[in-house]
Every structure is written in C-alpha cells, then in structure tokens.
Amino acid sequence: MIVTVTPNPSLDRTYEVPSLDRGGVVRATGERVDPGGKGVNVSRAVTAAGRRTVAVLPLGGAPGALVADLLDAQGIEVAAVPVGGATRSNIALAETDGVLTKINAPGPELTAAERELLLETVRTRSRDADWIACCGSLPRGLAPSWYADLVARAHTAGVRIALDTSGPALLRALRERPDVVKPNAEELAQAVGRPLATVGDAVKAAEELRGLGARTVLASLGADGQLLVTDTGTWYGTARVDAVRSNVGAGDASLAGFLIAGGTGPDALASAIAHGAAAVRLPGSVMPTPADLDPAAVTVTAEVPVDRVLEEPVP
Questions:
Q1: Which of 84, 190, 229, 261 has its CA 20 to 30 A from that of 50?
Q2: Which helix H or strand E contains 211, and what residues bound it?
Q3: Where are the domains of the chain?
Q4: What is the distance between the alpha carbons of residues 34 and 283, in angstroms, rounded to a whole number?
Q5: Pairing verdict, β 180-181 and 30-36
Q6: Per-block mean pLDDT, blocks of 10 residues, the chain (315 long)
Q7: Backbone phi, then psi, for 211, in 5-degree steps?
Q8: Based on the number of CB atoms within 10 Å of its own CB, is 112 exposed (0-12), middle (13-18) or buried (19 or more)?
Q9: CA–CA separation, 103 vs 274, rounded Å?
C-alpha cells in the first residue's frame, strides 16, 4: 500500500489548443477537469495499476470538495485534512505540438494547527504502508524543513519514503536520508548549482545528492530518458514514444511505476520509464493503466552513455 502526501493539492483544468496566440482568442479543442497535485497523480497512477493507495491532502472550499469527489469517483481513498483556505485551481494549456503552458495558483496558507494535523494524519494513515510518497511544492505556512520533519517521522515509524520536491525543501530533507528522491533535470541542476549538458553531468549531480543524504536518486531527463543512481549501481533507460500528447503528470506516473515495482533496481526503473512514456501519450493528466504500457519499447542499461548530449540541456 502506498500513502501519498500532497501538501498543496489543486483542481486542474487542462485545455487542448491548436496553438497559443498571446493576446488573441484561443478556442480549445478539448477540456478536462482533474484532481491535481503531484502526490494526487501518484495515487491516481497506483489506483490505475490496481494497487491500494491513500491520498493525504489538505482540502478547503468548493474546489477542495470537488477534488475529493473526483478522487472518490476514481476509487481513491482520501484522508482529507480540513483547512480554512480554498484549495487552489490551476490551468494547463496543451498545444498540439506538445508544448505545455501551466498557470499554477499559490494555494491557501496553512495555520499551525493545520500543519500539525497534516503530519498527524500522515502518521496514522501510514501504519500499514509500504511507501510514503511526498510530492510537490509546500504551501504557504509550511517551512522548508517540513518535509525533513516528515522524512524523520516516517523513518522512526519504519516506513520507506520517496520525495519529489525541489529547492530548499529538497536540500533540507536530504539531511534525513530519504529512501528515494525524484528530481527532473531542472531540479537536479538547481540542487547542485550548476548546468547539465550531458547525461554524465546528470549522473555526477545525482551522485552529489546521494552524498548529501539521498539513498537513491531517480532522475527524469525528459526526452533523454531516466537515470537511477543507487549504492549498488547506476542505470540509464529510455523509451520509444511516437507522439507526445501531454506531459502533465508524466513524472508522477514514473514515480508510481517505480514504487509499484518495489522501488529499487533496474526492473523498477524500467517500470518507471514505461509508466512515464505511457502518460505522455494520454490527454491532460490522465494516468496510464496496465493496458497503456509498452514494456517492449523500454531499454535499460548499466552502460550509461555519459557523453550523450542532452536534447534539452539545463543552463
């Protein structure tokens, strides 16, 4: 069972548009409304795979009620933490050429009592969990050390924890030795304070995160594939994707695939890549089912192409 924690969930509206004409009238060709937030997406992907999950998230106002209803309709167990502020609403504009424009609202500010209730809810709902997946940005009212506190509490309870966040919250949490961290290329470069031009640069950055405390680093490199760096080895993998429809939630689907497959080793990396590749072929933030996966399109190797130049280098 996988418990997900989304401190700043959202109600996500995704519009598919032919192209984005700034200042003009853009007519959408498709529209979706989904419960949003990185941890929420992980729970959705876990559920789509037929596994049990509990989504812990603070919810408030009409948007929060709709998020809970949408998750319930998908068969996802919600452990809601009531908050006074309204859950944020986000907008994504997906163009036919794969370019995505996102507008993310800041979300409510949590009070001291709401912060503590959120931690307590995670503690009580994770007693039988195989993994806790903590994902996304922190809302106003939560200090950068909040994730570090959560990692420490999880380890005290004997539960493995995966962390998908960035910036000061990631760096603070590394001190508590999270079992898995899952940065994308931009977050990886930000964490080490230098650009990434090659796969080898990404490997060195991941190793540096391990030196700071991360036990395993699962790094998403976009079109350049994914890296897995552990104390037992380093693996690199890619997947063939013929057409990208939307990359919203693809990284979250990857993390779900990794944890579903045990959260360790090259087989888990292959599962992560298969889930991420399936997600980009689907509209909006739709999470893939087992029928959407194409394991044959995935290649994983221990011979990491360190000299490969990234298609999307991070300055």
A1: 229
A2: helix 199-212
A3: 2-19+29-314
A4: 11
A5: unpaired
A6: 97 92 92 91 95 97 97 96 96 87 93 95 94 96 95 95 97 98 97 97 98 98 95 96 84 97 97 96 87 96 97 91
A7: -65, -25
A8: exposed
A9: 28
* φ, ψ at 143 (rounded to 5°): -75, 155
Spatial CB neighbours of 55, under 8 Å, sequence gap ≥ 6: 3, 4, 6, 39, 40, 43, 71, 76, 77, 78, 79
CA dist., res. 236 & res. 218, Å (int):
10
Domain boundaries 2-19+29-314, corresponding CATH code: 3.40.1190.20
pTM, 2 dp: 0.92
H/E run at residue 132: strand 131-135
Q: Do the beta carbons of residue 203 and residue 306 sit within 8 Å? A: yes
* Tokens coding 59: 């919810």
Q: How far are the Cα atoms of 43, 79, 276, 290 from residue 72, in angstroms, in the given order? A: 12, 11, 24, 21
Question: How is residue 172 written in tokens?
Answer: 């603070």
* Owner of token pair 């399109």: 297
Asked if 245 and 280 count as a contact pair (C-beta separation under 8 A), the reply is yes
* Residue type present at position 173: A
Annotated catalytic residue 149: no
Residue 7: name the closest of 118, 105, 144, 112 by CA: 118
| Cβ atoms < 10 Å from Cβ of 116 | 12
3-state secondary structure of 143: coil
Q: Which of 12, 201, 224, 252 is catalytic?
A: 252
